Amino acid sequence: MANNNVFNMKSNGAGPDKFIAFLKKLSFVPVLIFLALITIPSVVYTVATNENAIVLRFGKYHRTELPGLNFKYPFGIEENINIPVTSNMKMEFGFRTKDPGVRTTYVKGNFDNESIMLTGDLNVVDLTWIIQYQITNAKDFLFNVHDVQKNLFDISQAVVREVVGDHTVTETIIEAREEIGMQSLAMMQKILDEYKMGVKLVTLKLQDVVPPDKVKPSFDEVNAAVQDANQIANIAERQRQKLVQEEKGKADQIIQQAEAYKIDIINRAEGDANRFLALYQEYKKAPMVTKKRLYFEKMRTILAKTQKIFIVDPDVKGIMPFLKLDGETP
User: Fold this and answer.
1) CATH code, 108
2) Is pTM beyond 0.70 here?
3) Residue 71: how many CA atoms within 13 Å on its side-chain side?
């Protein structure tokens, strides 16, 4: 009876072969899961919002990916390198930042080979500065120049030394610090663009510009003398401007008086001319009457100014010597 049942199971196809086949199929599931677990991390990658991803295929540049979820070929066929492209990065010269954060401190250390430089008037200054930059082209940054950081460091040193060498020590320390920074920034950016380094400078700022410690006392004395001279020059300039303003005011007043006098003279001349023309018209109408009237007017003007009047008869040949004049006794 039992043999008949075994025979029936084989004849119906429900025997151990089918069961073994089913078990073999189940054995591939863990393998597939395992393969998926080791493959997905090498296929899927993310690019942060401040990054670009450079994708290499068999070690050669293939494409640039933007921020977000991205995919690549697994098993080393493609490789991604994420580059920060919008973050400001900093490089320091002549000093280093120690423990940046809440209590940031700066260490001068032994960086004289970076900070000691010669000015245009053959003086020596100790100059520290920083640069801030961004990566604008991730591909150029990775492939156009070997060791961008070192090249950027060397270019900055060379440019700043060249610009400082075109200025005097006084200009470098006091008068032209901002100009030196702007000029150095422009020259550096021009070099970076020529070499297509994929870097954009954000700022170049001079930090401390001082004479070396060995000559600092002498320089301080010279600087104090220069400041005194500048103070005296400023006082003299203020006094000069005050005097110039006063004299200018006087000159303007004289000019205004002269203009008023000119207008008065012109008005008088025009009035006299108009009066003369009016008299002339009257004279043409009655010459004798006009002459007499003019004569009488003139005599009235003259006689009004005299205190004594003596009328002498034209027939008299001489005046008696006993005549009292001005209270004199004959």
Assistant:
1) 3.30.479.30
2) no
3) 3
